[in-house]
Amino acid sequence: MNDTSDSDSILTTPDPGTFVDVLTILFTLIVVFRWINKKTLNIPDSIALSLSSLIASNLLIALNLILPHIGVPGLDLTPFHNVTVSFPVSLFELLDDYSALGFLLFSDAMELDIVSLKRSIEVIFVLAVFTTLLASLSIACFLFLVMIGISYPLPFSHCLLFGSIVSPTDPVAVSGILKTKRELLPKYQRFIIAGESLFNDAVSVVLFIGLRHFIFAPHKADVTFIVRLFVQEIVLGVIVGFAMGYLAYQMLSSFESRVLEAHVTLVLVLLINMICKHMGASIPLASVIAGLMIGNYGIAFVISSQKTFHWLWGFINDTLNSVLYLLMGFISILFVTLPDLGSHPSKATYYFVFLSVIPLSLLSRFISVWIPLRMLQLYYKMRRKRLHPAIRYAMPLKFVFVLTWSGMRGAISVALALSLSDQLASRSIIFALCYTLVCFSTIVQGLLFEKVVGYLGAFPKLATLNASISQVNKKRRNSHLWESVVVDRNDNLKPLPSLSDLVCSVGLVGVALNKQENLSLDDGKRQRVQQKSNTRNPVDRGMESSVEWSSTTNLFQPRLLDNHEESQNEHLSDR
């Protein structure tokens, strides 16, 4: 019992010195694994790191079992044993609250063309929202039936919770494949895949939080709670992303310094993480919106050096990508410490569930992609609207197969699974199923991605979503001199308004609305006076003095009208 309690204390409160040792081991393994991959297999780094981490994690598990039985005089292996045991726990902070994922999404969103996003917003919205919801429901139904088949039923709410965990496609996994295999797909189809992976995680997080509250506090998780959660996560995330991105854009436009530009963008992502945590907003969604603003408007108009800026964020993206993929392999050490379910089935039955969930997840992905795209196509036919030529190439069945196979799970699914409370009875099996899908999608789907796309045949490359890109000369201050540099600029983009122009625009809009309100009040008063004059008796109207409404002074000014003017007024009132 004492040994168990000591190990539990190590798992819950890792020593700061141990955390530094863990980081040192982590980055050393990243360098070694990537060097071996470049010298031998030369496969995508995300796949190589995930595969290497699986092997290394099994070696660490073996070391944890061997070290307590080694009795060498004068050799104290306790510190190394503590490091290996607390390795994954010390690094959970990298995934906690999507802090690392915010940097990754910001970097990936900077590479996304906002003009192309506007042209393909229908397909990306359908895939990000309806596909995620339908995938969560379908995989929950499949898992519910499988667990009933092995005579160990799970509550359907727990199955839905698992569906919300594995339904989003991971942007880290998808972007890693698409960046290294650009020749496989045309650019507009790669754009749709990347766009979906950037936005569907916000929907899955809202669904996950709502289901988790429903399981632990069903009396509080009503429709009002879901609506409030949606507003808090989505709407506040959009507002925070726009506001912080705009402020960073204005700050970047006020100076010319590569180092300070890097500092501003780094602090921008950190502030987004901090503000969203305190406000309960969606960190992934806010990071994507801020990345779109800086990556399009910032790089085109205010960033002094595009190459340096892209290199910096490419380095950050690549480093965090490596950390997360290596970390996912070492998370398997937790299988040794996670509690088992009471009266659980045999290991062979568990293996059957693990293997069956892989084809069922692919089938769920195919159904959730095909049905919304068909409904979108039917919607445009009913309205007799023609889809953009590039969007029509997202509809064929073979591209649905590509979307199905590219729907890889990764760091976000692992982060959601790890955030489950120990009080959840099915936490162990949910985590095991999630990790099985992450390993399969990263290794098998990643390695076979090129062969699957090649088997489906060549895709047409006639249509394009790209806006026209032109190279313009921009003045940049270098030391005490101004030099001319060439930058890429989208012809359809305009610079964002300055803060003073924005305030003036808001003021002018307020004045226009106030003026329109006054005019509507004056029109209402005129109509009421006209109605009163129409309801009068014609005999009485000829005997009494007519009253005229003055719109300039807003007062009743009585004056006698001659017979000619009175007859004209009667004629107009009859009309």
TrEMBL record:
The keyword Cell membrane applies. GO terms for cellular component: plasma membrane. The chain crosses the membrane at residues 18-36, 48-67, 98-117, 124-148, 160-178, 198-219, 225-247, 259-275, 281-303, 315-338, 350-373, 393-417, 429-449. It comes from the Eukaryota. Pfam families: Na_H_Exchanger (PF00999). It is found in: Cell membrane. Gene3D superfamilies: 6.10.140.1330. Residues 522-549 are annotated as: Disordered. Residues 29-450 form the Cation/H+ exchanger transmembrane domain. This is Cation/H+ exchanger transmembrane domain-containing protein. The lineage of its organism: Eukaryota, Rhodophyta, Bangiophyceae, Galdieriales, Galdieriaceae.
